[in-house]
Write a structure and sequence with these properties.
The relative contact order is 0.13. The chain is globular, with a radius of gyration of 20 Å. It is an alpha/beta fold. The strands form 4 sheets. Strands 4-5-6-10-11-12-13-14 form an 8-stranded parallel β-barrel, surrounded by 5 helices. A 3-stranded antiparallel beta sheet has the order 1-2-3. The N and C termini lie far apart (53 Å). The protein is built from 17 helices and 16 strands. It has 2 domains: 267 residues, TIM Barrel (Alpha-Beta Barrel); 102 residues, no CATH class.
């Protein structure tokens, strides 16, 4: 009798810096490169969990900050954990809450111990530390836990970014210790560290070395997609992923547009998450193989064609651009649902196409063709 592994990552093929492989966990296998739909408040907005899975998602992301405030981590635990609560029985990655707390610049106080902040919901005060973040993620029952860190903007002074990175590395060690004290949860889950250092090569190298010394199951690249622009992000990804252990998955947090994903996979990234496909779906924007579409445009009002002829999702095989345009103009909820469904399907189809291209040794040609069609 074989037991499912707590966490095992294997690289099946390489093409340049791009890799394709598998993360095997007790709740299922995650094919990489992987895109994780964001289920901020125990829901991928406008989608049923079973529909998210049917579109090809192997793992979703839950948000520690939002769930700790509502309905509360202790309540989720009493109700059987996040998987049971939301009816998603495959792996869940939870972020640490650090990014959301850091964005509350006028509502929080930062110290070496952690962060004290006011809830954006009701103004109540909360204290979040590396240890409390690990406890919350344990109560939620997540499969991949993220270390608690601070994420400064890339345009801050270098000395400020350096001090923040060093503190995040101290918090990474405290996160490691807090996670390891978690008993059964630590035995069946995984912990990822987060590289910081903004756009600075030397700071990124120091961060990577400290994280490697602590030791994690996977490593995230944090501090990007926070306003620096794609060119600067790619310039950082030209060196940052290779600083992290080759045998572990590399996760680029909060990214991104379809062309961001292709460029990051090209540079050795294995995992992604972003609210863009769901948020855009609620705002009448669709991603297609020929670039993004704004369904608000009047030119779609009598277009009987599918949203994307190359897409085989239920939205594209059933509904016309004219109907989707009408739903948006009428403010109908179904419009947001159908466009969200398509966008998530497109993202998963893109990841599958990249996995196949890497496995076939044709990734460079795939990326060139994708950019030609998508970017025009």
């Amino acid at each position: 009798m074989t037991t499912k592994p707590r966490f095992a990552f294997s690289i099946k093929a390489r093409d340049g810096a791009a890799r394709t492989g598998e993360i095997r966990m007790r709740r299922g296998t995650i094919r990489t490169p992987a895109f994780m739909p964001v289920g901020t408040a125990a829901t991928v907005k406008a989608m049923k969990p079973e529909s998210v899975r049917a579109l090809g998602a192997d793992i979703i992301l839950g948000n520690t900050y939002h769930l700790m405030l509502r309905p509360g981590a202790e309540r989720v635990a009493r109700l059987g954990g996040l998987h049971k609560f939301m009816n998603w029985h495959r792996p869940i990655l939870t972020d640490s809450g650090g990014y959301q707390v850091m964005s509350l610049s006028d509502l929080r106080k930062l110290t070496e111990e952690g962060v004290t902040f006011k809830s954006h919901i009701d103004g109540s005060r909360h204290h979040l530390t590396p240890e409390r973040s690990m406890e919350i993620q344990r109560l939620l029952g997540s499969d991949i836990v993220m270390a608690f860190d601070e994420c400064p903007r890339a345009d801050r002074p270098r000395e400020e970014i350096a001090a923040s990175m060093e503190m995040s590395m101290r918090w990474a060690k405290r996160s490691r210790d807090g996670f390891d004290s978690g008993g059964d949860h630590a035995e069946r889950s995984a912990l990822f560290g987060i590289q910081q250092g903004a756009l600075d090569r030397d700071l990124r190298q120091i961060s990577a070395q400290k994280l490697t010394e602590i030791g994690f199951d996977g490593y995230a690249i944090g501090g990007l997609a926070v306003g620096e622009g794609q060119e600067a992000m790619f310039a950082t990804l030209d060196f940052a992923p290779a600083m992290l252990p080759d045998h572990a998955p590399r996760y680029l947090m909060g990214v991104g547009k379809p062309d961001d994903l292709v460029g990051a996979v090209e540079r050795g990234v294995d995992m992604f998450d972003c609210v863009l496909p769901t948020r855009s779906g609620r705002n009448q924007q669709a991603f297609t193989w020929n670039g993004p579409l704004n369904l608000r445009n009047a030119k779609h009002a009598e277009d009987t064609g599918p949203l994307d002829p190359r897409c085989h999702c239920p939205t594209c095989t059933t509904y016309s651009r004219a109907y989707l345009h009408h739903l948006g103009k009428a403010g109908e909820i179904l419009g947001a649902m159908l466009l969200t469904e398509h966008n998530l399907a497109f993202y998963q189809q893109l990841m599958q196409a990249m996995r196949e291209a890497i496995a076939g040794g044709t990734f460079a040609a795939f990326a060139a063709e994708f950019r030609r069609d998508y970017l025009g």
